[in-house]
Structure formats: structure tokens, C-alpha cells
């Protein structure tokens, strides 16, 4: 009788482990996924070593909005994930003049944008964002490979919307940036 109870207990543990693995895989595939920031393209908002959580379901319910920070498949190499901010929406005319962005002729207010160089490599357009596409840029405008260089982002390549920094390592060390942990992204 004890042997049967032991086997039954093992089966219950195995069942619980299998259910936990299936739920974790489902959650990662369809709900939330973690990403690490490897570059300085979003400095000002995100730092190298930040770990983000990304909501993968939000754009199945809502349309992407200007200002959203998104993770997407890099159009030139779908095996790589990029993170940028949405600047231009479908059917909008984008123009960049002297590091200022104009959407349909109106100056865009961007308190998050960082310009570190005095060179003016930020001219663009005017170009209309095609239907089903977005114009995305890194917040660190002088150090970002973005829509200015590789074109418009297909909305279907979006993985999800970044919503929180859940962990942050400083300078690839074991030093934690506690002030960034649980930082909500806007």
C-alpha cells in the first residue's frame, strides 16, 4: 500500500511540473516576455543592462500609439529583436529638419529625445508612413539605427509593448541599479 502512495505522489508531482511548464511556455509565447537592453539606442529612457517585460497581447486589442516603446523583429534580420519608440503612425507625413520632427506639418514635442552630437544627421523626408507600417526611432537619436536608415516597420513585426524595467545591471557587472527596478515605462 505504501508503494502505491509513493507512486501516486510521484505522478502528482510530475503532473504539477508538466502543468507549470506548459503554463510558463504559454505565458511566454502569448502574454509577457522578458528582454534585455544591449545597446545605447534608447538611452535617456532605457540603459544598457535594463531587463524589460513586454506585453505581447496589447496590440491584439489596441492599436499602436505614438510614444509607445515597442520590441519588434528587426526588418533586416528577423532573428534579432530591437526596441524603439513609435514616432509616426500609418498615413502620417514624417519630416525631420534640424533634429526636429514634424508630423503632418506640426512640430512633435518629445521630452524623451536625447541628442548628444552637434552634427545634423537627422534630416528625413517628407515621407508618408504606409498603411500597416510605423516610423520608429531610438530615444538616443544620434546613436540609433531606426526607421531613418532601414525604412518603415511593418506592424506585423511587433512582438509587444514594453511596460516595465523589472531588473537592471550596471555596466555588465553584478551591481544592481535599484532605482530602476520596477520602473514603469511611458
Layout of secondary structure:
Blueprint: H1 2-30, E1 32-36, E2 50-55, H2 58-61, E3 69-73, E4 81-88, E5 93-97, E6 100-103, E7 106-107, E8 124-128, E9 133-137, H3 147-150, E10 153-154, E11 158-170, E12 175-176, E13 183-184
Antiparallel strand pairs: 1-2, 2-11, 3-4, 3-11, 4-9, 5-6, 5-8, 6-7, 9-10, 11-12, 11-13
Summarize the structure.
The protein has helices spanning 2-30, 58-61, 147-150, and strands at 32-36, 50-55, 69-73, 81-88, 93-97, 100-103, 106-107, 124-128, 133-137, 153-154, 158-170, 175-176, 183-184. It is an alpha+beta fold and 186 residues long.
User: Roughly how many Å apart are the termini?
Assistant: 60 Å
Question: What is the average of the pLDDT values?
Answer: 87
How much helix, percentage-wise, in residues?
A: 10-25%
The number of helical segments is 3
What Rg do the Cα atoms give? 21 Å
Description of the molecule:
- With 186 residues, the protein is of the alpha+beta class.
- It folds into two domains: 1-30; 34-184, Ribbon (Umud Fragment, subunit A).
- Helix content is 20%, strand content 34%.
- It has helices at 2-30, 58-61, 147-150, and strands at residues 32-36, 50-55, 69-73, 81-88, 93-97, 100-103, 106-107, 124-128, 133-137, 153-154, 158-170, 175-176, 183-184.
- Strands 1, 2, 3, 4, 9, 10, 11, 12 and 13 form a nine-stranded antiparallel β-sheet that branches. Strands 7-6-5-8 form a four-stranded antiparallel β-sheet, with no helix packed on it.
- A hairpin with a 2-residue loop joins β5 and β6 (100-103).
- It is elongated and about 75 Å long.
- The N and C termini lie far apart (60 Å).
- 24% of the residues are buried.
